[in-house]
């Protein structure tokens, strides 16, 4: 490629805006520029990759001089030039759009992590919200006792969004036939916690503790007593 690798290490080191100017961009060729911006403490130097795709010009920052040497910036620019060729042929994504999509994915993941709750956290939140409307103190104690004895040991620390039918089956299988009345109540408790989580968009999809899914796997519990 003609007109490439125009800068020297010395020129990069000594680069600064012309007198009276705040910023300058110095070409190295092959779409690569060194952007020098005046600051309070001296000069900030960053590598810029300038290109045009589908009639739109983009200035893509690829890193500061403090983190990317001239040689590294040239290698990155070479990779981007190839990506643009492929993008024009429909074989690759526009580098600027790729960055936008990557940022969206990162923000979505951070948002997901920020609102992620374990099953125990959801169960406790559900209990605090609804137990005030339960008139029976015995029911309140039994509700939490069921969770602590029969549910939490298996799924308490799991992100509620990651819990599926297999996890619920693992919780209920040991008690489904042995103490079916209690198992039925526990299934109902878990299902209500999931309804609460779905309403708060903490998880999505089918409720894995829904009775139709549980009985499809474990059958209908026999009549029995027990808490």
Explain what the structure shows.
This protein is α+β, with helices and mostly antiparallel strands and 227 residues long. The protein has 2 domains: 9-113, Integrase, DNA-binding domain (Double Stranded RNA Binding Domain), CATH 3.30.160; 119-218, Orthogonal Bundle (DNA polymerase, domain 1), CATH 1.10.150. 52% of the residues lie in helices and 16% in strands. It has helices at residues 9-14, 70-88, 95-115, 119-130, 137-155, 165-176, 180-199, 211-218, and strands at residues 23-29, 32-39, 42-53, 56-64. The chain has a 4-stranded antiparallel sheet, covered by helices on one side. A hairpin with a 2-residue loop joins strand 1 (23-29) and strand 2 (32-39). The model has no long low-confidence stretch (mean pLDDT 91).
Sheet with the most strands, sense and barrel status: 4 strands, antiparallel
Strand residue percentage: 15-25%
Strand order of the largest sheet: 1-2-3-4
- Termini gap: 79 Å
Mean pLDDT: 91
H/I helix tally = 8
Order of helices and strands: HEEEEHHHHHHH
* CATH homologous superfamily placement of the largest domain: Integrase, DNA-binding domain
**From the coordinates shown, what is the CATH architecture of the largest domain?**
2-Layer Sandwich
Number of strands: 4
Helix content: 40-55%
Q: Provide the structure class.
A: alpha+beta
CATH class of the largest domain: Alpha Beta
Low-pLDDT runs of 5+ residues are none
Tertiary shape: elongated
Number of domains: 2
Q: Please name the CATH topology of the largest domain.
A: Double Stranded RNA Binding Domain
Radius of gyration, in angstroms, nearest whole number: 30 Å
């Amino acid at each position: 490629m003609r007109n490439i690798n125009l800068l020297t290490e010395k020129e990069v080191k000594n680069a600064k805006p012309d007198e009276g100017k705040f910023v300058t961009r110095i070409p190295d060729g092959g779409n690569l520029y060194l952007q020098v911006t005046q600051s309070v403490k001296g000069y900030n130097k960053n590598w810029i990759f300038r290109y045009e795709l589908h009639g739109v010009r983009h200035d893509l920052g690829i890193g500061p001089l403090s983190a990317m040497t001239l040689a590294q910036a040239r290698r990155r620019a070479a990779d981007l030039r190839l990506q643009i060729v492929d993008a024009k042929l429909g074989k690759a994504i526009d580098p600027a759009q790729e960055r936008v999509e990557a940022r969206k994915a990162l923000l979505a993941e951070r948002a997901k992590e920020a609102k992620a709750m374990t099953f125990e956290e959801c169960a406790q939140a559900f209990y605090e919200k609804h137990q005030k409307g339960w008139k029976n103190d015995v029911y309140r104690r039994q509700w939490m006792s069921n969770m602590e004895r029969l549910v939490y040991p298996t799924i308490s620390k799991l992100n509620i969004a990651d819990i599926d039918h297999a996890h619920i089956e693992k919780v209920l299988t040991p008690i489904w036939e042995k103490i079916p009345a209690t198992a039925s109540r526990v299934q109902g408790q878990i299902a209500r916690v999931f309804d609460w989580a779905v309403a708060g968009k903490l998880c999505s999809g089918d409720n894995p503790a829904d009775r139709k899914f549980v009985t499809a796997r474990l059958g209908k519990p026999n009549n029995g007593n027990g808490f």
